[in-house]
Specification:
The protein is an alpha+beta fold. 50% of the residues lie in helices and 16% in strands. The protein has helices spanning 2-18, 23-40, 44-48, 51-58, 84-92, 131-138, 160-163, 184-206, 211-242, and strands at residues 73-79, 97-101, 107-111, 119-125, 144-149, 152-158, 180-181. Strand 2 and strand 3 (107-111) form a beta hairpin.
Length: 247
Amino acid sequence: MTTESDRYFTELTDALRTTGVPAEQIAATVEDLRGHLSGTGARPEEEFGPADAFAAQLGGLAPLPGEPDGKAESWTWTADLFNDRRMLAVHGDQGWEVESLDSLGRFVCRRSATAALRWEYRREVIGARRRAKVLAELEPEGWELCGEWLVYGYFKRPRAATAGPAGALEARPAAPLQQLFLSRRGKVALAVWLVLVGGAMAATFIGTLGTGGLAITIALASMVFALVTSHLETAKGRVDQDRPKSS
């Protein structure tokens, strides 16, 4: 198995080099794929297909983070906790790679202008006690932490690690014009937040609440909005998990 695997990745490395993929990117790609195989025990050609064909699909890998790429697309968007995983799956399938979450909790994404990859994502609770355990479980499977929000960590990996050549994106849909994706529950929670903040602003305008009180009200309303949303999403997940599966 080791000899076969070494031979396969040598062929893959040579084929990727001929397509112009940078050496650092080749090394990172091979390392990720080796990690995936060590976790599954599968044979490389059965998992990824012939090395030459697989290299042709991977030849347009996005540059390493921080590498200049004036042609790459950028897009920033956000969703509530009820809708984030669904939208990550949709956008990841369109080749959008999450680079980070900004200070507002928005997903900062990029997509190669050439042959982009499809991406898959998952969200895990990574509080102080769970962080090391979650990372130890997911990193050997090729998952990379790409952002954190509240107690949640978002992980990504290229779909090619599990889907082989099917993980490459042949056609790139246009970047969405929309940047906010809210579920029904998220819209209700946001409406309550707006009512609270609007009331505080009105009280400030008529003089019954000072600017300091307004700032405190907005901060408290935002904190409650985040906590309630997180609680409702967690409760919904438990209900879904406990619901009997239909045969």
